[in-house]
Write a structure and sequence with these properties.
Layout: E1 5-9, H1 16-29, E2 37-41, H2 47-54, E3 60-63, H3 80-85, E4 90-93, H4 96-101, H5 106-118, E5 122-127, H6 131-135, H7 139-154, H8 156-159, E6 163-166, H9 180-197, H10 199-204, E7 206-210, H11 218-222, E8 229-232, H12 239-247
This protein binds 2-phosphoglycolic acid.
Amino acid sequence: MRQPLVAGNWKMNGSRASVAELLAGLKAGIGRVKAAEVAVCAPAIYIPDTQKQLEGTPIKWGGQDVSVHASGAYTGEIAGPMLTDFGCHFAIIGHSERRAYHGETDATVAQKFEAARAAGLVPILCVGETLDEREQGITEQVVARQLDAVIAHCGIEMVGQGVIAYEPVWAIGTGKTASPEQAQEVHAFIRGRLAASSPVVADSVRVLYGGSMNPKNAAELMAQADIDGGLIGGASLKADDFLAVCAAANR
Ligand code: PGA
């Protein structure tokens, strides 16, 4: 049995005050979440505050990116060991916004996955097609390419120590969610791709859905056989909404 995981991706949102309020709300309401493991991925500068507020609670925290390097002359970068120094459990790797706006290639993403694991973090590897790619009918090709790059570089066993997030780019922040059937189809494809290298890993690795998941659509998405939770952007910025998405995994 794969334990569902619901992770919030705050992206570049918030202030010290709003982060404190959001975390207080999550702590107060986490008791209603029975089944899912819950995490928030904070902007790096708010990770120390997040750690202070969440330590001793069931809620885990993480970063939104990690450098391919462990330390050195890389101005502006955050290394994996710096994240674990502040108690981070997870790191988002290869989010489509980083691929699109920061030129992260499949090769860079694979190196980042490896760097996160080397620091003891659980990488949440994001894959997904653009609208143009979906319309061209090459969704599976794109997702396979993104996944295969990490399997080839890190090995299937290491991939099994992480989490995969299927995030169709056209559904991110747009209010357009993939239908449960559309999402399940790609999730099943991802699991099949993993199974070609290791049926054991394919069976145990969690594959999250991300892209406009919210309290209204979460239960139906998470009821699909191969959807093991969500990576939540917009709806993770309000405690009530995020907790409702987390509780949608209660069975
Ligand atoms: P969204 O973002 O929930 O706001 O669509 C999801 C993500 O980008 O991880």
